[in-house]
C-alpha cells in the first residue's frame, strides 16, 4: 500500500520553511501531494496557477512530490485522493492552538485520515508568507527566505 500524504497550504508564496516540511515529509511518505488551497480570508498576491508553478519549480528535485490545487474542504480533497495523512508544519507554540482546532474539525469530518505535525527547522521558525511579502514589497533582500524563482516572482509583482 502506498503511503500518501497531503501537504496543504496557501503557499502565497512558498518559503524555505514550507520546503523544509515538504522535503522532510517526502522522506517519510511514499508520495506527497502539495495542495494549494485558496484561503478566502486572505488576499493572495499570486494566483493559484502562479503558486502551483512556483511550487513545481521548487520541488522538481523531489520525485515523489506532486503539486495540485483544490477549492474544496481539505478532508474532501484528501478522501478523493485516498490519502492516509495530512502533513502540517508548526513554527511556534502559537501555531499549535490554531492547528489543533483545524485538526479536531478535520477528524470530525473524516476520522480515517491522520494529521502529522512537523516542527520546522529553527532557522525558518520566524518565516511566514506574510512576512516575506511585506519585506519584498519594500525591495529588501529575501534570498534567505525563499528560493530564487520565488524571489524573482516577488520582484516582478512589486515592480
TrEMBL record:
Record's GO cellular component terms: cytoplasm
Pathway: Cofactor biosynthesis; coenzyme A biosynthesis; CoA from (R)-pantothenate: step 4/5
Chain residues that bind substrate: 10, 42, 74, 88
Signal peptide: none
Name of the top EC class for this enzyme: transferase
Annotated catalysed reactions: (R)-4'-phosphopantetheine + ATP + H(+) = 3'-dephospho-CoA + diphosphate
Assigned protein family: Belongs to the bacterial CoaD family.
Molecular functions (GO terms): ATP binding; pantetheine-phosphate adenylyltransferase activity
CDD domains (alphabetical): PPAT
Subcellular locations according to the entry: Cytoplasm
Keywords, sorted A to Z: ATP-binding, Coenzyme A biosynthesis, Cytoplasm, Magnesium, Nucleotide-binding, Nucleotidyltransferase, Transferase
Name by which UniProt lists this protein: Phosphopantetheine adenylyltransferase
GO BP annotations listed: coenzyme A biosynthetic process
Residues holding ATP: 10-11, 18, 89-91, 99, 124-130
Chief localisation class: cytoplasm
This enzyme's EC code(s): 2.7.7.3
Residues the UniProt record annotates as site (Transition state stabilizer): 18
Quaternary structure note: Homohexamer.
Cofactor: Mg(2+)
InterPro entries reported in the protein's UniProt record: Cyt_trans-like (IPR004821), PPAT (IPR001980), Rossmann-like_a/b/a_fold (IPR014729)
Organism taxonomic ancestry: Bacteria, Bacillati, Bacillota, Bacilli, Bacillales
Domain Cytidyltransferase-like: 6-134
Function, in words: Reversibly transfers an adenylyl group from ATP to 4'-phosphopantetheine, yielding dephospho-CoA (dPCoA) and pyrophosphate.
Amino acid at each position: 500500500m502506498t503511503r500518501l500524504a497531503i501537504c496543504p497550504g496557501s503557499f502565497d508564496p512558498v518559503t524555505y520553511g514550507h520546503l523544509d516540511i515538504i522535503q522532510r515529509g517526502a522522506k517519510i511518505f511514499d508520495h506527497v501531494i502539495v495542495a494549494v488551497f485558496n484561503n478566502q480570508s486572505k488576499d493572495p498576491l499570486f494566483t493559484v496557477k502562479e503558486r502551483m508553478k512556483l511550487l513545481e519549480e521548487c520541488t522538481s528535485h523531489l520525485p515523489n512530490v506532486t503539486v495540485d490545487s483544490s477549492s474544496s474542504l481539505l478532508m474532501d480533497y484528501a478522501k478523493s485522493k485516498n490519502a492516509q495523512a495530512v502533513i502540517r508544519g508548526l513554527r511556534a507554540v502559537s501555531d499549535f492552538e490554531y492547528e489543533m482546532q483545524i485538526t479536531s474539525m478535520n477528524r470530525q469530518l473524516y476520522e480515517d485520515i491522520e494529521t502529522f505535525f512537523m516542527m520546522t527547522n529553527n532557522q525558518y521558525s520566524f518565516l511566514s508568507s506574510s512576512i516575506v511579502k511585506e519585506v519584498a514589497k519594500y525591495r529588501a533582500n529575501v534570498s534567505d527566505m525563499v528560493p530564487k524563482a520565488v524571489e524573482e516572482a516577488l520582484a516582478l509583482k512589486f515592480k
